[in-house]
Every structure is written in C-alpha cells, then in structure tokens.
Write a structure and sequence with these properties.
338 residues, alpha+beta, 20-stranded antiparallel sheet, 4 helices, 20 strands
C-alpha cells in the first residue's frame, strides 16, 4: 500500500515539474518574441524617420523607445517635430504615446500631449492645446482602414500674417472619423460647444455645435498611402455632402446636403438643399454678430420668408456652377478655385 501511494505521489510531482518547466519555457519564449518585436519596431521606426530626411520632409521622435511588456507594444517619445523643406513649414508637439495589444497589433491607440505649434510659413502661425487628444487607427491588408481622432477642451489660436486680428477657437469636444469604403473615403466631423473669437473685431459669434458627414469617391487610397492623385487630391473629385449642420442655439439651425464636384482647375460645382430653421433666431443672431449690416439682414430674412411662405423652416435650393453661387434664382457671389 505504501509503495503504491509513493508511486502516485511521484507521478503527481513529475506532472507538476513538467508543467512548471512548460510554463517557464512559454514565458521565456513569449518574452523573447516580445523583445524581438520591440527591437524590430524601434529599428523600423528609426529607419522610417531617417528615410524621411532623403525627401523634402524631416521628422523626429525624441528619445524614442518601445514599452508595454508583457501585453502591449507601443512607441514612446518625449516630443515630436516635423518640417517641410519646400514650404519651410514646421510643427512641434509634446510627448507621444502609443499602444497595441500583442494579440491585435493592427489596432493602435495613441495619445499626444500639447501644446502643438504650427509654423505654416509666410508668418502664418497657429498654436493648439488640449486637455486630452487621443487617436485610434486600424490597419488592413491595403493600409490604413479606419482612423479616429478625439479631443477634449481644445484651444486653438491662429495668427495671420501682417494682421492684428488673431483668431481663437475653443471646443468642449471634437471628433473626426474616417474609413475606407470600397474605393471611396467616408469622413465624419463633429465640433461641440465651440466658440470663435476674432481680436479687434466687432463680430460676435455665439457658441455653436457643428457636424459634417461626407463621402469622397475614389479616394480610399488617401488612407492606404498609395494615392495616385498627386499633390492636389481634392481636384478631379466627385463627392457627396451627406449632411452638414450648424446649431447656434436659441433655435437657429442650418442644414445643407447634396452632391458636388471639383474640376481639374479647382472650381466647385454642386446642387445642395439648404434648410434654415428658426428664422427669427437667425435674424437676431446675425444682427448681433454683424450690427453694421442689421438692416440688410432684415431685408434678406423678409425675402426668404416670402419665398418660404413665412414658414419658420425655410428650404431653398443652392446651385453652384464652377464657383458661381445661386440661392433659388438669386446669384449671391462666387467661390474662388480650391
């Protein structure tokens, strides 16, 4: 009886020993794979950054290193910079952090610390800061398949050249989403609780919300990185503005949608449906924003009210023919080529 018991204990001990050996080998093997991938990611990233120096673009990820062991893999930098030798423009920002789950390396989540400073050349400067800026990217076989960018408490300042009228934009939250949809590119943009101010100007723009949804035909390649549309991909373009809305509060709402195109010369052509809700609210807001044009605004509102049979919601056709803009049968101006 004792021999049988001793033999059973020996077999159990042997099983635990082999299990322990398997666990140790698995951990060591997994660790070796993780550090190999980390080394490859770091070397590949440094190669891509150095390869940019052979083109017209420069970029640097200061103190680049890979972290996230054991379950994540990501790049970390104390600061990021980029520049264009042709336009002399540059951008710089704070620390950058990214991470991908080891079992889903094609889905990368990243964060960037502000502020970001943009020198766009010709004395055009912009500075953007935020409380939180986060992105999510998903890569497929054809390159970048989906991308999202979200921020909280965004604050932007734009200083035009030779101008004292600095523009400042702030928003409680912003969202941008883009995806490949077969050969097309879908994009959605949202701006919530936004405020726009212009220094040394009498223009007073109220807090507003804005949202846009559009589809660009045959532009999915812009995300894949294999675009054949040259340096001006917005030309020779067919697209659809699925929806655009602006809500300025107090019932003043604007909606517009319709197909459009931009020809090889950059001229816009489109047929849009314009809806204006809260006619009286719009008159009040526009009169306050542009006090010197209050009388003209009242006249336009009265004309639109007559066209819309004095309904609070006005629906009007907006036709643009190579930049020439008509609302109904009235030509109101021209849009220069893009």
């Amino acid at each position: 009886m004792t021999r049988s018991s001793d033999k059973g204990q020996a077999n159990t001990s042997r099983k635990f020993l082999w299990l322990a050996i398997f666990i140790v080998v698995a951990v060591v093997g997994y660790s070796a794979v993780w550090f190999y991938l980390a080394d490859q990611l770091e070397n590949r990233s440094k190669f891509l950054l150095s390869d940019l120096s052979n083109s017209d673009v420069t970029a640097d990820c200061q103190d680049l290193n890979v972290r996230g062991y054991p379950f994540r893999l990501g790049l970390f930098c104390t600061s990021v910079t980029a520049g264009d030798r042709v336009s002399k423009g540059s951008v710089s920002a704070g620390s950058f952090r990214s991470a991908a789950q080891i079992y889903q390396p094609n889905h990368i989540v990243s964060e960037l610390d502000g502020p970001a400073t943009f020198d766009l050349g010709k004395d055009l400067l912009a500075k953007i800061d935020w409380e939180n800026l986060r992105s999510s990217t998903v890569f497929g076989l054809s390159g970048l398949a989906r991308a999202s960018l979200e921020s909280r408490q965004l604050r932007a300042t734009l200083t035009p050249p030779a101008s004292q009228n600095t523009m400042q934009l702030s928003a409680g939250s912003t969202q941008f989403h883009a995806r490949q949809n077969d050969a097309n590119l879908d994009a959605v943009f949202n701006l919530d609780a936004a405020e726009l101010t212009i220094d040394n100007s009498t223009i007073q723009i109220p807090t507003f919300d804005m949202a846009a949804d559009l589809t660009l035909a045959d532009r999915a390649s812009l995300m894949s990185g294999h675009s054949s549309h040259g340096q001006q991909p917005w030309r020779d373009l067919s697209a659809s503005l699925n929806s655009f809305s602006a809500d300025l509060g107090q019932g003043a709402i604007l909606n517009i949608a319709g197909p459009f195109s931009i020809d090889a010369a950059g001229y816009l052509t489109g047929k849009f449906s314009l809806e204006i809700r809260g006619r009286d609210a719009w008159q009040k807001l526009l009169g306050k924003t542009f006090p010197e044009r209050a009388g003209d605004i009242a006249n336009v509102i009265n004309i639109l009210a007559a066209i819309g049979q004095k309904q609070d919601a006005l629906k009007l056709p907006v036709n643009i023919d190579r930049g020439a803009v008509r609302v109904g049968f009235i030509q109101i101006g021209a849009i220069p080529p893009f």
